[in-house]
Amino acid sequence: MERLGQKIVRFRKSISLVWLIALIVLGYFALQLPDQLKGNGFTRDGEFQQVEQVLEQEFKQDPHQIIVLFEGDEPTIRKEMTRHVTLFRDIKGVGQVVGPTENPQAIRDGKGYLTVGTPDIEQKWTKAVENKVDVPNDVSVRLTGEPLIVDDLNTASKNDLVRAELIGVPAALLVLLIVFGTPLAAVLPLIMGLVTFIFGAGTLYFVAGQQELSIFVLNAVAMISLALGIDFSLLYVNRFREEQGKGYSIARAAEVSVATAGRSILFSGICVFVGLAGLLVIDVDVFQAVAIGTLVSVLGAVISAITLLPALLALFGTGLEKGRIFKSGSDRGERRWRNLARFVMKRPVAITIFSLILLVPCLIPLRDLELNIPQASALPEDYASRLAFESWEKKFGDDGTDAVVLVEGDFSSEAGLRRLEDATRNFQADSGVKDVISGATLAEQNGLDLEQAVQVEQAKQQLTPWIAFDADVARVNVNLVGDPGDQASQDWVRKVREMGYTIGGPAAFNQEIYDEIYDKMPLALSVVLLATFLILLIAFRSILIPIKAILMNLLSLGATFGLLVILFESGLVFPAETIGILTPVFIFSLVFGLSMDYEVFLVSRMEEYYDETGDNDVATEMGLAKTSKIITSAALIMIVVTGAFAFTGVSPIKQLGVGIALAIFIDATIVRMLLVPALMKLFGHWNWWWPGGRRKRQTKWH
Q1: Please, where are the H alpha helices in 11-73?
Q2: 275, 379, 422, 549: least CB-packed within 10 angstroms?
């Protein structure tokens, strides 16, 4: 690493120029990234998707629908709905427009709705429908449905990002000013955070051209970019100033900083990378998209921190101490941290027990954790599409189709028709089913059995929306007793699949997403834990330190999830709502990596002192004293940057921001200040045990 530092210092101008050109180009594409993000990302190539394709190809069902909700006097809205069916059918490119004639249940208690099928969720369809709306003053019309909800989620996510940055960035700048005391030293980490974001967002623009990226990617990339850009810069700038304080020249200080802080940054980046790479195991688009986005950001953070940052410091290092606003007080700060380390190490058992008493009770609420897939309820409460959807759902939601079962057979034969009738009767007799609609039930309503109906040409034509005679497939729409997202509905879907049926619809969608996440999480967790263990093993040449780091991380993350249940599900702090299924997975991936980031910073410094002195107590005390100010400052900045998302409106993003801030707070206080030094003292030299004996590094810096 020292040789790399020498080359960076030597070619500092060229490196800075290359980065400037790259950032201008990537910045241009980064500005266009938000327009490339589509959908909430909860899609996967499963049975649900196969059913959707059959419904679209064989039954001409549109993949997306706009719901047009009418409110007013019933005779008036019936008249207006009938008129608007004709208006909407004139829109070129739209699919089926279903009104009161096709759906008599669509008018009830002064409310009615039409559905307009669309081939995609592009905003142009919403605009076209809005332009056709023309009602008298005594009738109100509101639009909702997937195209509007997704578009509003995109808009709200952009607004939330701006709002969070307006809160978080000034707060981070204030913390940096207090930590470093001078304007340039304070601004530099923020610049590196911006560089990381531009690198990530600009690169993702090209990824978005190859695959669909979720609207949640932008916020996740912003969080991880600011976090790592600032964290890595804090570590590096602090080490650079420390080396300058020893009398080294600017060039030499930059070289030494690359060799020491740069090594820590490299291993930290690998740990974060591994934590996020675990998301790739889960075959759901939103996890894949966020994983790719954040992995690109991690790559950008590491590369910029070990190339651009030392080059900039080599160029402008003389201005680092100019214009001091706050006194540094570094010696006094180090003494306080050394005193804390001594206090903890004098009573390691008591401190360990005290820490566990604080953390373990937070695990209890985990038994009440409920997860949901973000839909309209993820939007801010005042958004029109959410209000309209909730109004529609309250009045008509129970009449929807929760599951679509495909029945295969030759429906020109008696055996095939009997198979469809038997399936319909079985579902009607099921205690978990509220209502069933199929070709068999429609024939029955007309006073015919199915075999008679298919013999009459007119009746057979009426059955074509339910039986695709040429494709040998029929659909059975099932309305379940429970909510399509609850456990009972998911169990029902699994039971029907075991019977040999292909099943789609909202209940199947939820079941596939939940099962994919729950089934793959153990694998993702195992990959992350094993890879992290191996990385820390290589980094510190110790068996015990990686094990302790992983266990402490899991404990603090478990406590975080328990606190999230209290904060959100109880309604004591935020409006009562279940936790988005994104939240715990993303928090684990992001925070596990970031916590290892701090672990590497701290233990790397302890290792330097241990290799020199062979004294575990001195190494623990000095490592804590030298790094705690920076780690705590980095954690505080992370807390204000991610915690700022608590003031945003999109609930999964709010939960994610609050969760990360909580996890970092727990890690920086209870874990890093108390548990780490206590356990380092308890295990003594066993912390550094290595099979065959420990080979000391030739360390020239502290």
Answers
A1: 12-32, 47-58
A2: 422
